[in-house]
């Protein structure tokens, strides 16, 4: 399974090397070639199966790219006032240059001609305007432009980020024309619920500097995390704590899993009816699904859901899962759902981190003690991800193991569950919900003091450039370690 997944990944990577999107005719050519090689599989030629898997990877990435790029803004319409009808598809973020939000365009009117679009764009509305509610339908006048390539050293190109998020244009609302709300948001709209939760956090913590951090960890709204905050996270290698990704989703799902299994085992009659392991798997998956929904089903949370679903499905079937087999299935399914994931550093680092843990921990003797269960894992990830971090970001924090060994269990095991519990109990009692949120902010203040102290040590390793040979040699050294 791992070999199939890696071949599929190689095909996806090879496709990304094209500077121009190949024609759809190549789809039929590759499909014919894959069919011919598929017949050769019966001959048990290992090389034929390998090439076939790689071709399938290229084919799937090609089809996905054509679907994403099926609609593009015409150059003649750039920076021209256009009437757009659609729905606000994200929590509006208040920034210094205006309010920024995703807008799902259903219709575009050009010179009186209405055409369906059904695409996401990123809009900015500057100046004073009525409050924007996620999920509400608007008729806006805006000037749009196609995504353009902007990149800073050590960062992902802006155009790549927009492609990864299926955002096909950016623009600004033209205030010379009247924009109006056409329809209010549905009470069941997910983004409206997320925006309401952010407002609840703000009202409960009006003076707290940690309200933005709690909003980031509960609903994935990172708009109010300042540049100085990000610098502290970067210096300590803890930026992942502020993103609802596999780490937080896994911790919350794991916590619910173990609590459910422990409680179910207290009732022998219930265990005779259904195994505690199966009940725990269902509740763990449900918790992961709810948490991913709070994050707006962002791509990192979808990736985490796929990985967790493989683990929990084996738990439901009471079948032992080989770690490498589960890793391979997760990799293949993520590439099938979101082939463009390989463009983002998070994809590489998340799967590499899991692979490092499996390689360093599986089949070892003397698996006892706190160091083996937690300290060794942090050490292995820090060393294992060092070459990739230097290659992608140009820097790596050498104090990250110290910061993460304290911050991950405290933030992921205490602050995040406490914040989520406050939102749940807040629907029953505002007093209890507000109290728990204040308790979360109080606990987060201690974690922040710890991270600020470590960031002042300036423990960052900077590499201006990393060649392929250096990366290869460093990888070999990491495997030996």
Task: Give the arrangement of secondary structure elements.
Blueprint: H1 2-15, H2 25-40, H3 46-68, E1 81-88, E2 93-95, E3 98-110, E4 113-125, E5 137-145, H4 158-164, E6 167-173, E7 180-183, H5 190-204, H6 211-219, H7 227-236, H8 246-265, H9 268-273, H10 276-294, H11 299-316, H12 323-337, H13 345-361, H14 370-384, H15 386-393, E8 395-397, H16 400-426, H17 430-455, E9 460-462, H18 468-480
Parallel strand pairs: 4-6
Antiparallel strand pairs: 1-3, 1-5, 2-3, 3-4, 5-6, 5-7, 8-9
Helix pairs in contact: 1-3, 1-12, 2-3, 5-6, 7-17, 8-10, 8-11, 8-16, 10-11, 11-12, 12-13, 13-14, 14-16, 15-18, 16-17
Architecture overview:
- With 481 residues, the chain is of the alpha+beta class.
- It is 58% helix and 13% strand.
- The strands form two sheets. Strands 1-3-4-6-5 form a five-stranded mixed beta barrel.
- Helix 10 (276-294) packs antiparallel against helix 11 (299-316) and helix 11 (299-316) crosses helix 12 (323-337).
- The radius of gyration is 24 Å and the shape is globular.
- The mean pLDDT is 84.
